[in-house]
Amino acid sequence: MLRQSFAAALLFAATALALSGCKSLPPSKPESQWTQEEARGAAVYSQKCARCHYPTNTQSLHGPGLQAITKVKAMPSGAPPTDERLTQVILRGRNMMPATPLDDAQLSDLLAYLRSL
User: How far from 111 is each of 20, 22, 117, CA to CA, in Å?
Assistant: First the structure.
């Protein structure tokens, strides 16, 4: 069910981008090709991030969508999407985003997942 929902969301995002004429972003890595670290990171994302961020588009839910967040020149804040900057935002929060306490393994897995988007 999760795979079907993910595939449907990815198809919807791709269709929306194509119809809007926006410059398309690099596609997310298919779930079938995730490493174990990326899969664990997806679980962390589901628990800690998904209520506020879409993973497969850039539209805002409560926070910005995160598609290709590590592949773009700058994050919505204007800062480059380095692991260090992402870590700072995740652990300390920024503006309306609260700090998200994670242990080192969860953070590493989450960063791996974000790089797959």
Answer: 29, 26, 10
Residues 6+ apart with CB under 8 A from 106: 44
Q: How is the chain split into domains, by residue range?
A: 2-17+30-70+102-116
Q: 62, 51, 57: which is closest to 16 by C-alpha?
A: 57
Q: What is the pTM of this model?
A: 0.76
Place of tokens 């990326």: 38
Q: State the average pLDDT over residues 7-22.
A: 43
What are the pLDDT digits (tens) for 83-104? 999 999 999 999 999 999 999 9
